[in-house]
Amino acid sequence: MASGPPHVLIIGAGTGGLCLAHGLRRAGISVAVYERYRTRGEGLLGYRVGIGPTGSKALRECLPPELFDVYLATCARSPRYFNVITQRLRRTASFTLRPDTDPVETERSVARMTLRQVLLTGMEDVVHFDKTFTRYEQRDDGTVTAHFADGSTATGDLLVAADGTHSAVRRQYLPHAVVRDAGTINIATRVPLTAHTRQLLPERVEKGISLIFGAGGIMGVLHVMEFKWDRDGEIKPDVGDDDATLLRNWPGRRHDNTRDNINFIIWSTARRFPPDVMQRRGEDLVQTARNLTRHWHPNLRELLARSDPGSALPIRVATSEPVPAWKSSTVTLLGDAIHTMTPGRGVGANTALRDAALLCRQLRQAAAGDKTLLQAVADYEAAMVPYGFARVADSLNRSGTSGDDRMYKPVVGRLALLGARGYFGVTSRVPRLARKFVNDFYTYRGEED
């Protein structure tokens, strides 16, 4: 075990791994990130992720201040409303969300590809692409060596698994850890945001996030993503001078192809989908979504018809099962590599960022000599495992995220649908209940205890 500041190896250049890398470098701790993608533009990463107070606080803690400002400038227009609608575009409920005047205490809409470019900014000497991790070795001298598919190796004092749901590190380190099929499938698409597609949406839907409770157990969600640059990548004329300057000077712009769009996701129990849905792509997959929504409002069906076929992606939803405590060592995990969760509460990325900030704090203490590296890892895991798996359970219990949910049952499903719509309808129409709903939304997404 090194007596000085540790050298940290991070496997995976996702949201949590890169946030940790920034925090460590700001603290003067040596770090290297190894990413299986060959370039910074690879991967289907254009979909929305909601960053709540927890995630924004972690980013502010770990990123250089000027890069945190870039993060804020690259966020899409923040949602003004959380809506619940029917498949016929009738509004069941609408809650007014907080304005985005505070840098962290709000809900921000972020494109995954854009956030990836922000987090890769200034990390050219830290991130190594085209490095597919295969295995690690923990050595007698306390170091750990990572092996990659190209035959190369890297040795450090700590290896952090940030390589997602299908983590190769976890398979070796915690082979008993189970990630199981949640029983639901999503079809995600992106619809270019144009004057025409904007007009297909009611005003509150266009300006918010909308959950669709469709009949027959077909669910959906709409996120309108509007950025500060146009379809040619040029800064829009109504953008403030400070943000315009930040964006013009940000080198990540030339790597980001994200443009204004409507994220449109259809999901249901896996039983409703064709057996080969996970192999379908393009127009074939879009048509699958249209077949599932044949009784939906014509405007919603037109949105699907106008979606970019190249963006259509099937997603089999997965969830982790709690892992018994393990003995801490020179290997640890963060984010989906240890606590994959369904999108039911929308906090997967926020929890990964929370992990990154917590682990960074612990490693700073180890680097300062206040505790050993192993104790820092143990303290991190003692906090991370309980809150991580609590979020897993919460997300799985959210209505419609499990394939066995009563929403998908032939008869009971109708009652469950009426119950869900009734709950949201009453809650949104009683001011005291509506305020509590919104406050609870932010409290949960900003919870640190």
Helix and strand arrangement:
Elements: E1 7-11, H1 15-26, E2 30-34, E3 48-51, H2 53-62, H3 65-74, E4 81-86, E5 91-96, E6 108-111, H4 112-120, E7 127-128, E8 133-138, E9 144-148, E10 153-156, E11 158-161, H5 168-173, E12 179-192, H6 195-199, H7 203-206, E13 208-213, E14 219-225, H8 241-249, E15 261-269, H9 282-292, H10 298-305, E16 313-320, E17 331-333, H11 336-339, H12 348-367, H13 373-397, H14 412-429, H15 431-445
Parallel strand pairs: 1-2, 1-11, 2-7, 4-13, 11-17
Antiparallel strand pairs: 3-6, 4-5, 8-9, 9-10, 12-15, 12-16, 13-14, 14-15
Helix pairs in contact: 1-2, 1-4, 1-12, 2-12, 3-4, 3-8, 12-13, 14-15
Walk me through what this model shows.
The protein has helices at residues 15-26, 53-62, 65-74, 112-120, 168-173, 195-199, 203-206, 241-249, 282-292, 298-305, 336-339, 348-367, 373-397, 412-429, 431-445, and strands at residues 7-11, 30-34, 48-51, 81-86, 91-96, 108-111, 127-128, 133-138, 144-148, 153-156, 158-161, 179-192, 208-213, 219-225, 261-269, 313-320, 331-333. It starts with 6 loop residues before the first strand and ends with a helix. By secondary structure, it is of the alpha/beta class. The model has no long low-confidence stretch (mean pLDDT 93). α1 runs parallel beside α4 (112-120), α3 (65-74) runs antiparallel to α4 (112-120) and α14 packs across α15 (431-445). The strands form four sheets. It has a seven-stranded mixed beta sheet with strand order 5-4-13-14-15-12-16, with helices on both faces. Helix content is 37%, strand content 22%. The protein is built from 15 helices and 17 strands.
